Fold this protein.
Amino acid sequence: MPARKLSEIGEFGLIGRIRDLFPAPEGVEGIGDDCAVLPQHSGRDTLVSTDLLIEGTHFLREDIPPYRLGWKSAAVNISDIAAMGGKPVATFLSVALPADLDASWMDEFLRGYADISGRFGVALLGGDTTASPDRICINVAVLGECPSGTARLRSHAQAGDRICVTGPLGDSAAGLKAILGGVERDADVQALIDRHYLPLPRVAEGLQLAATPGVHAMMDISDGIGSDLGHILEASGCGARIDVAALPLSPALQRVCARQGWDAAALAIGGGEDYELLFTCTPEAEKALAVPHTVIGTITAGTAIEWLGAGRSFHGFDHFR
Amino acid sequence: MPARKLSEIGEFGLIGRIRDLFPAPEGVEGIGDDCAVLPQHSGRDTLVSTDLLIEGTHFLREDIPPYRLGWKSAAVNISDIAAMGGKPVATFLSVALPADLDASWMDEFLRGYADISGRFGVALLGGDTTASPDRICINVAVLGECPSGTARLRSHAQAGDRICVTGPLGDSAAGLKAILGGVERDADVQALIDRHYLPLPRVAEGLQLAATPGVHAMMDISDGIGSDLGHILEASGCGARIDVAALPLSPALQRVCARQGWDAAALAIGGGEDYELLFTCTPEAEKALAVPHTVIGTITAGTAIEWLGAGRSFHGFDHFR
C-alpha cells in the first residue's frame, strides 16, 4: 500500500482517526465540538478549547500588526466558549518566537491580547515560551464554564428548527481579500479589515442564548457557514434549507462588493472568521428571542444543504486541501 | 532607544513581562508554577498546564521516531500535573503538520500518545489540527485536579527542609548526548536513550507526596535541577545547599560516563528532561516517606545554591540564550 499523505486524508479525516483512537469517557463531551465539556461535580461544567496559529499558514508577519494578532489570538478562543454558551474564565498562551524578534513585537502582541482579555474579564493564567528557528507559533488554550448540562452542542439541532446568525456574514473574508489584493483603504474597506483583525466574540449573546429554552445547536462561524453548518448537520443527523437572500450582509460589504465586482453571497457563505454565532431554535423560541439575530433558514429531515436562490453549491475550508 | 531582541531579554525576562501585564485573580495561582490552580468551588481545584514543541528547537524529525515523540508530548504534560501532586484528567492536542507528511507518521505519533495516556487513564478531549508550511508544531494542554488547597507549589519551601528527588538524574541528558554524538547503542546507552524518549511521569509518587503533611514545595525536573531548584528558591525566598556526591546516578549513566569520559555530575545538574519530582519536606516527614526518594541537600535561609563538593557552579537552560 503506498504511503498516503495528509493532503489525501484531509483535516476531517485526520480528526476522525484521532476520535476513533481516543473515545471520550462516559458523561464527557470530547472531540468534535467548539469545546470539550467536563462535569465539575458541583453544578457546573468546565469548557475547554485550544487553537494553534502558525506564521505562514494563519498570518503573515508583515501583514498583521502584532497588536491585532494578539487580540485575534485571544478572541478566537474566547469565541469558542461563547459558541457553547459559556462564560470564559482563563486562557493559557504558548508562544514559539525567533530569538532575533524585536521585544517590542511581543510587547504589542501582549497589549492586544490583554485588551480583549480585559474586555471579557478573562485571566491569562499560564502557558509556555520557547524559541522557534524561524516562524512564530502561537497556541491558546481557553477555559470557561457553564451551569451543568446547559452547553449548547452541535448535535442538538432538530428538524423544524429555525437557523439563525447573530450578525453580518462575509465581512472578515472581504477584509482579508482586501488586504491580500492591496485594495485602497477607504472607510468601508477599513471597517471590513477591522472585522478581520479585531473580531468581537459574542459572549453575552451566547450566555443569553444558552439560558433560553428552545435554543438547540450552537457554534461560532470560523470556517464559513458552508462548512460550519455542515458540522451541525452531521452531528445532529439533519439537513438544512438556506435562503441565500436572507443572509445578513453589512452595508460596508455590499458597497465594497459592488465597487470591486466581488460576489457578496460567496464571501458570506464560503468565507470564514466572522465569529458570529450560528444557532438553531424552535420557531416559538425564535419569536421571543431578545438577542439580535437573523433567520437564514430551516433545519430539515434531509441530509444535505439546499441553497435556495443560489443556483450552485458552496464549500468551506479544509486546512490540508 | 535601540530595539531589544528577545535574546537580550531571555525567557524569564519575557515571562516576567507577561506576569506584570496579567496579574492572577484573587484565590487563583497563575503564571510561574508547573500548573495554574483554579478553585472549582466543589472541594477540588483544577490544574492546567501547556507545552509547545517545535521541530528544529525541541526535536529533529529524522532523530525521533514518531511513536516516541507522541509519547513524550503527552508525558511531559502529565508530568506537570504530577509536579503539583494532582491527578491528570484530560489533554488537548494541537498539531500543525506539513501537508506532504505521511499519514503513517501521524498514526505512529498518535499511537505513542495513546499508549502513555492510557497508562495514566488520561483522555484526549480536543485540540486543533492545522497545516504548517514546513515544521511540525505540537502543543499539548493538560487538565488535572486535586483536593482544594493540596497542590504543592514552588513557593512552599521552608528553611531547614530536606531537598529530595524521586529518581536518578542525568539519564535523559546523557541519552540526548548519545543520540547527537552518534554513540554506539549498547544496552546501557539504549537505556539512557529510552529515558530521554519515553519518560514516565511520577503521577503516583506526586499524589502520595501531596497527601503527606510536611511535604512543602514540589516541581518536576524539566530544565535540570540547576535551573529548576532555582525556581523553587526564587518563589520561596530561600537558598539551598546541595551535596553533589548525593545526587542519584543510575548505574547505566555511571558506566557510559566512565567509558565516554563524560562528566556525570554536570549531566545530573545541568541536563534536563528527567521528569523526576524535586520536592522539599521537613526532616520528620522525610524519615516517614513511603515514596522512594534520595535526599540531595537542605533548604537554607540564604539566597543562593551552594554546591558542596563541586568546586564550580552550574546553570540550567534558557530557551532564548
About this structure: Chain B touches chain A through 78 residues (CB under 8 Å). Chain B has ten helices and eleven strands.
